[in-house]
Amino acid sequence: MKLKPLNDRVLVKRLESEEVSAGGIIIPDTAKEKPMKGKIVAAGPGKADDSGKIIPMTVKEGDAVLFNKYAGTEIKIDGVEHLVMREDDILAIIEM
Amino acid sequence: MKLKPLNDRVLVKRLESEEVSAGGIIIPDTAKEKPMKGKIVAAGPGKADDSGKIIPMTVKEGDAVLFNKYAGTEIKIDGVEHLVMREDDILAIIEM
Amino acid sequence: MKLKPLNDRVLVKRLESEEVSAGGIIIPDTAKEKPMKGKIVAAGPGKADDSGKIIPMTVKEGDAVLFNKYAGTEIKIDGVEHLVMREDDILAIIEM
Amino acid sequence: MKLKPLNDRVLVKRLESEEVSAGGIIIPDTAKEKPMKGKIVAAGPGKADDSGKIIPMTVKEGDAVLFNKYAGTEIKIDGVEHLVMREDDILAIIEM
Amino acid sequence: MKLKPLNDRVLVKRLESEEVSAGGIIIPDTAKEKPMKGKIVAAGPGKADDSGKIIPMTVKEGDAVLFNKYAGTEIKIDGVEHLVMREDDILAIIEM
Amino acid sequence: MKLKPLNDRVLVKRLESEEVSAGGIIIPDTAKEKPMKGKIVAAGPGKADDSGKIIPMTVKEGDAVLFNKYAGTEIKIDGVEHLVMREDDILAIIEM
Amino acid sequence: MKLKPLNDRVLVKRLESEEVSAGGIIIPDTAKEKPMKGKIVAAGPGKADDSGKIIPMTVKEGDAVLFNKYAGTEIKIDGVEHLVMREDDILAIIEM
């Protein structure tokens, strides 16, 4: 069983803090809005423009991404914390 | 007698918690915004774009879907809890 | 004398609770937002799009419809309660 | 001297309560939002669309109309109460 | 020295109350939103539409107009009270 | 070193009160929203329209302008007070 | 490892106060909204317009920029304070 996000939504697996601090990116403790790291598990087809044409997504399955802490809706899949959010809530792709 | 949702609205039958926890997706108790599972019972034709052309729906009758807890308007049909909501309130299709 | 709703507005006669509970649709007492049943008495021509072209209405005179409790403006015609609302306030057409 | 409303605005003469209750339309005392009756005294040319083209008005001078109680800006002309409002504040034309 | 309003703005000289009540238009004392009379002293070229094309103004220098009391920004020119406001804040042109 | 404003932003040098009152324009002390005088020091290329095409600016370097008191972001350059604001915050060009 | 900002977002390295005051631009202590200096470390490809076409960015990697104090989301990379913000939060490019 898997989730297929609608429109421009993505399903993101939140990465652990251990992983987050690894690799040089440290989320500051006192930041007003703390970004978090995650991995795209599934991506929707994209949002329809005003004429119904689908605008393709920038992110794809497997991408490691940074997103705002308060973005999206939480959901547990097999006990693991995931989030469903819109692509626009993603700040940046982490390239390695 | 049946309901025919208008525009981009769908009629969703809310699935029981037993069904929700089956299959690996567990809705966290403490989530700020808890998504819920349901089944599309009827779907509207789609929203008209700025020139009046209908943009077709992504979900269809029979789809199992996840949606935000506070989405839509509640209605009981033959004693069973249903919701009328906009397609954009649906987070993801659950594929099995 | 009759009312001719403007643009995408409709004139709806609110149906009695007795009629509402007949036919299997029961409006829950504790619902956060309770939909109500009514009958379209008159429908406007439709909303103009950005270029002034009229987008035709989905509902028509005689349709039984569900709408949100707080939609529209109340008006009594010959002692009977009616509502003037926008088509977008209608949730679904009740087919029989 | 007369007023020429701008864009999609209309100048409406508010009709007396006596007139309002005549003819079968009675405004309920306890309605959350009470519509009122009036007569169009002057109508603007219509609103410009995004490309500057004028979208013609639906109402015209002489039309009896229903409008929301709190719509528009009050103005007295020769001691008679009038309102300047946008066409979209008009709910319906009263045909006789 | 003169002011050249930008885009769809106009420079309006507020007319005195004496002038306002002359000619049959009396501004009610208890109105929730009192319109005021003024004369267009200078008008901008018009607002650019989405493609940068200028939509011409409806009002022009010399027009007597009605506008909402709280519209615009006050400025004194040679001791006389003026207002800079957008054309859309003007309710109607007063024709004589 | 100089500043190049982005999009439809301008860099404005605020003119002294002495200069403001000179030339007949006096800013009223009790105005709800007091406009201020300034000189355009640098202007951006203009805002991109929906298709990415640049809509050219109306104001240019050297123009004397009126703007709302609370517009823009303050910045000191070589000890002189400047503001970075959007062109739409400018009320009028002062021609001399 | 590096960050690739999405859409019209940029990754900005905040410049130290020492650097900020150098070069003639002094950020006032009492300004209601204080702009800050930074350097573009990475820029996204640009925002998609309504038809999905990418509108190219104005700023590029290496640009020194001014931005509002409260813009963006803070993130530390290898202990250095960075911000992810939208291009529209940038006020001006500092040319040297």
Automatic annotation (TrEMBL), chains A, B, C, D, E, F, G:
The answer to whether the entry has keyword Chaperone is: yes
- Which SUPFAM superfamilies does the record match to this protein? GroES-like
Report the GO terms under cellular component: cytoplasm
Decide whether keyword Cytoplasm is in the record.
Answer: yes
Its predominant location is: cytoplasm
Q: Which UniProt keywords apply?
A: Chaperone, Cytoplasm
- Gene Ontology molecular-function annotations: ATP binding; metal ion binding; protein folding chaperone; protein-folding chaperone binding; unfolded protein binding
Per its UniProt record, what Gene3D superfamilies does this chain match?
GroES chaperonin
Q: Where in the cell does this protein reside?
A: Cytoplasm
The job of this chain, per UniProt, is described as:
Together with the chaperonin GroEL, plays an essential role in assisting protein folding. The GroEL-GroES system forms a nano-cage that allows encapsulation of the non-native substrate proteins and provides a physical environment optimized to promote and accelerate protein folding. GroES binds to the apical surface of the GroEL ring, thereby capping the opening of the GroEL channel.
Q: How does it assemble?
A: Heptamer of 7 subunits arranged in a ring. Interacts with the chaperonin GroEL.
Its recorded name reads Co-chaperonin GroES
Protein species of origin? Desulfobaculum xiamenense
Q: Which gene encodes it?
A: groES
